């Protein structure tokens, strides 16, 4: 086997064969899917709901536009978009187990109209060039093996004048809070995962994946390299998460 770094990818703090990462991530989310929403509330103390509302407000949903939601999981972003007047929303995820939870939630909430579900690898989006007005991805880009490919694909499917939106964990900018944040991430979260979801390993991976994700400026540079323009960054909660936006012009 080659020792080239291009043959490997990060899986949390571990380096794994690049070809194996996608299946390993899929296994993590198949494991956490049944308790995913409960765990999100516990892990973020409910703040993830505020972040997501701010994110969807920034997207600016319109009845005349189509929103492609990548790595949409159990549907939080898609549902908020529909509630805020989005016309068509394409909810996608690479994991069928997550989408099945999303389908049930959509039916329970009466939000199925104008909502399409697709199993999609965000690195290979099966949509035509210039086919949607908005693309979103929330807490999903860090789990993708080839993040540059996701950004290129997002730009490809956007119509000119369309916009890409990413909500993701980022670099905390308040130094005094770093020790507390680390203790919460690496001690509390895996313990909560073990107790509530009976799965410590998956939540250790999720905590590690946050630390391995590019910081704000690095991701902004990756977006520009993918051809997105007028890239902007908005930190939330001191940089624990950040919203990145970029246009296809």
From TrEMBL:
The keyword S-adenosyl-L-methionine applies. Pathway: Cofactor biosynthesis; ubiquinone biosynthesis; Quinol/quinone metabolism; menaquinone biosynthesis; menaquinol from 1,4-dihydroxy-2-naphthoate: step 2/2. GO terms for molecular function: 2-methoxy-6-polyprenyl-1,4-benzoquinol methyltransferase activity; demethylmenaquinone methyltransferase activity. SUPFAM superfamilies: S-adenosyl-L-methionine-dependent methyltransferases. The keyword Transferase applies. S-adenosyl-L-methionine binds at residues 74, 93, 121-122. CDD domains: AdoMet_MTases. Keywords: Menaquinone biosynthesis, Methyltransferase, S-adenosyl-L-methionine, Transferase, Ubiquinone, Ubiquinone biosynthesis. Its EC number is 2.1.1.163, 2.1.1.201. GO terms for biological process: aerobic respiration; menaquinone biosynthetic process; methylation. It catalyses: a 2-methoxy-6-(all-trans-polyprenyl)benzene-1,4-diol + S-adenosyl-L-methionine = a 5-methoxy-2-methyl-3-(all-trans-polyprenyl)benzene-1,4-diol + S-adenosyl-L-homocysteine + H(+); a 2-demethylmenaquinol + S-adenosyl-L-methionine = a menaquinol + S-adenosyl-L-homocysteine + H(+). It holds the Pfam family Ubie_methyltran. It is an enzyme of class 2 (transferase). NCBIfam families: MenG_MenH_UbiE. HAMAP family: MenG_UbiE_methyltr (MF_01813). Belongs to the class I-like SAM-binding methyltransferase superfamily. MenG/UbiE family. This is Ubiquinone/menaquinone biosynthesis C-methyltransferase UbiE.
């Amino acid at each position: 086997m080659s020792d080239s770094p291009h043959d490997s990818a990060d899986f949390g703090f571990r380096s794994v064969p690049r070809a194996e990462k996608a299946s390993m991530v899929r296994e993590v989310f198949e494991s956490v899917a049944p308790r995913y929403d409960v765990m999100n509330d516990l892990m973020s103390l409910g703040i993830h709901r505020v972040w997501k509302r701010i994110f969807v407000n920034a997207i600016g949903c319109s009845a005349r536009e189509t929103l492609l939601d990548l790595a949409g999981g159990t549907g939080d972003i898609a549902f908020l978009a529909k509630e805020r007047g989005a016309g068509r929303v394409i909810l996608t995820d690479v994991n069928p187990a997550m989408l099945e939870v999303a389908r049930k939630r959509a039916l329970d909430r009466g939000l199925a109209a104008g909502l399409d579900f697709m199993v999609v690898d965000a690195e290979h989006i099966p949509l035509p060039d210039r086919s949607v007005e908005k693309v979103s991805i929330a807490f999903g880009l860090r789990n993708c093996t080839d993040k540059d490919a996701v950004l290129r694909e997002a730009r490809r499917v956007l119509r000119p004048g369309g916009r890409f939106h990413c909500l993701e964990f980022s670099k905390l900018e308040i130094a005094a809070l770093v020790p507390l944040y680390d203790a919460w991430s690496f001690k509390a979260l895996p313990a909560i995962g073990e107790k509530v979801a009976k799965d410590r390993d998956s939540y250790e991976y999720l905590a590690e994946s946050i630390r391995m994700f590019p910081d704000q400026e690095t991701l902004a540079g990756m977006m520009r390299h993918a051809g997105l323009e007028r890239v902007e960054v908005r930190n939330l909660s001191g940089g624990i998460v950040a919203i990145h936006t970029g246009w296809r012009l």
